[in-house]
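Lab notes, practical 5.
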Amino acid sequence: MPFLDKYKLIVTDAIENYKLTNSPHQLYDPINYILALGGKHLRPIILLMSCDLFDGDIERAIKPALGIEYFHNFSLMHDDIMDKASLRRGKKTVHVKYDENTAILSGDALLVKSFQMYEDLDSHLFKKCFTLFSQTALEVCEGQQYDMNFEKQQEVSYDEYIDMITKKTAVLCACALEMGALLAEAGVEDSKNMYEFGRHLGIAFQLMDDYLDVFGKQETIGKKHAGDIDENKKTILYILAKQKANENQKRKLNHWYAVIEASQDKTNEVLTIFKELDVATSCMELIKHYSDQAKNYLEMVKADTNKKKMFYELIDYLLVRDN
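Output from the prediction step:
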């Protein structure tokens, strides 16, 4: 999107400028590899946007923004190992291109580098930003553990699922937005409202991903159709279906989600139940609920109206995807 381009250029230039040339290269080359795979760079971009919203110094925000991006990619390196994923952004994952031990150690090094990006901040900003970042990092790990727990857990409640995606996905977006405000030395209330804006937007974004996995166009979303069903992932669609299902439908869902092997029969049977219960409509209603909450927090932020327009465009960019 054009309104993101100037911020994305700053982020991509910074990644190149801070490219790791240290020894041993076997440790740092995999880090440079994953950082060069591209992606939206959404989290560092929204940190810069938030800083700019409050007329902050963008230069001061660049290294903290990289810290967010480094941490995100660290989590991807380790997630790919746990998920046994072979591709990331259309290219080999780090543990496939190199090996699993290298990916673990390089991921650890990238985590350390993410924290080092805050060392140059003035003391009054360092404490605020580092405290926020370290708490967020821990919550992301908690979210990943809950996600793994759910694979073995037959019943997952709506509240449990929202808590999991909040920690695994939403809090890092929220952290980026609050940190941008902190770096611009915005007021406490505005900083917290930016955090809540990001948290609710992050939840809506993950719910939309769940929706698109099953009901989106494969050529548009760029991944296998209904992959979450194949992998027995208890997404919001599954949870809504279990809430609305009769005993016969629940029995069928329990059966198919206990089958490890992917098959067209399994996909078709689960899709039939989802459509019978109209979980697509229920999911879209939830997405609207959380996006409306995000807008409410954004409206409370005291900042230039024209600059805030970018954030409303951001909501559309993330949630109004071709399905």
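Observations recorded by the TA: The mean pLDDT is 94. The radius of gyration is 20 Å.
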